[in-house]
Design brief:
Layout: E1 12-14, E2 21-23, E3 25-28, H1 41-53, E4 58-60, H2 69-78, E5 87-92, E6 94-98, E7 115-119, H3 123-137, E8 142-148, H4 152-155, H5 159-180, E9 183-190, H6 193-200, E10 207-211, H7 223-232, E11 235-239, H8 246-249, H9 254-259, H10 263-279, H11 284-293, E12 298-303, H12 308-319, H13 324-332
Parallel strand pairs: 3-4, 3-12, 4-5, 5-8, 8-9, 9-10, 10-11, 11-12
Antiparallel strand pairs: 1-2, 6-7
Length: 346
């Protein structure tokens, strides 16, 4: 049964020069791959159905999420809806190889499928990866294909090698697949904007999916890159808008402090921003989400909700009214390193 909602569907933004239009909120499927905790098939389908009812048309997935589990669950959803109304992204760079179930493990994931993840940024590996994803997803085309994690966070000292393999292999393969019509848009899905900035000097892509780098806690060093994206009409899809939970909890996120260096200073910054939000009686999460969504370089913010209540709240957060004086206070107090000027635009 279709539910009725008091709020409007999310607005849609064009993706670069393609014919794709993305809802301002995207549904990230990492939770459907049992990241951090097990999610049932029924819960997965309920969440995907609700996202569609809420007007969210963009679904982001990857072979990595549950070693194929998330893609399979998206396939079950796609069979129940009009595929043409969904903008679907998946990723390449990790292939799945059958493995004994007892030897399968994936950090932060519960009960993944019995496959081993193998990094493969080669041309043929990318073609194979797309073919495998098409079968797991039960679709005959991919809207957005992204090269996954050819970054420092994932590869460390081997990043230069992984990046070269991705540019010479995977990117050429995706470009060919785009020309054939099997893929409609291509780009990177990484953890650092610097990797994307380097690619802008080497090739033409449609979009970048970047995790956590553009947020209320981000660094102003990203601003020249954001300007370049606007100038070149390369769209950004942003994940991690709540910065590992800090901007959803007001600084109470032990997991974040353990996960990344410099967590204590980010926690203090989040607490200071939370204090300003409390003065205006505005939830911190609303401010964090709209700060990202309303940037002119951004087409969509991807959120990984694991409950229907979270999903509905995300849509409400995106549409809530935030006083201009709140943004002015954040600017005056210099609590946000990245410029908030775009929040004053009409």
């Amino acid at each position: 049964m279709r539910r009725e909602f008091a709020h409007k569907p999310p607005q849609k933004s064009p993706l670069a020069d393609t014919e794709l239009f993305l809802s301002e909120i995207g549904f990230g499927t990492a939770p459907l791959g049992n990241r951090f905790k097990a999610v049932t098939e029924q819960t997965s389908q309920d969440l995907l159905s609700l996202s569609s009812q809420l007007g969210i048309n963009f679904i982001d997935t990857a072979p990595m999420y549950g070693q194929g589990l998330a893609e399979q669950r998206v396939a079950n959803f796609l069979r129940r809806v009009d595929r043409s109304e969904i903008v679907l992204s998946t990723k390449v760079g990790r292939r799945l190889v059958p493995q004994n179930e007892s030897s399968v493990s994936l950090p932060d994931h519960v009960d993944p499928l019995p496959f081993e993840i193998v990094f493969d940024y080669s041309y043929q590996g990318t073609i194979r990866s797309i073919e495998d994803s098409l079968q797991r997803l039960g679709t005959n085309y991919i809207d957005i294909a992204l090269i996954h994690d050819c970054d420092y966070y994932t590869h460390g000292t081997r990043q230069a090698i992984a990046f070269a393999e991705a540019i010479n292999g995977a990117l050429n393969a995706l470009s060919d697949l785009k020309r054939s019509g099997l893929v409609k848009a291509i780009g990177l899905g990484v953890n650092e904007w610097q990797v994307c900035d380097r690619l802008l000097d080497l090739a033409q892509v449609d979009c970048f999916l970047i995790a956590r780098e553009l947020s209320l806690l981000g660094s102003r060093s990203i601003e020249p890159f954001l300007e370049r994206c606007v100038e070149r009409n390369v769209s950004l899809i942003i994940g991690g808008v709540f910065h590992g939970g800090l901007l959803a909890t007001g600084g109470d996120s032990r997991r974040f402090l353990q996960a990344r260096a410099g967590g204590q200073s980010k926690q203090s910054q989040a607490l200071a921003i939370q204090k300003i939000c409390n003065e205006f009686e505005v939830p911190l999460a609303n401010v964090a989400l709209q700060f990202v969504q309303r940037h002119p370089a951004v087409a969509c913010a991807v959120l990984g909700a694991s409950s229907e209540a979270q999903l509905e709240q995300c849509v409400l957060s995106a549409q809530s009214v935030i006083p201009v004086d709140l943004w002015q206070r954040l600017r005056d107090k210099k609590l946000v390193d990245i410029s908030v000027d775009h929040m004053f635009a009409s």
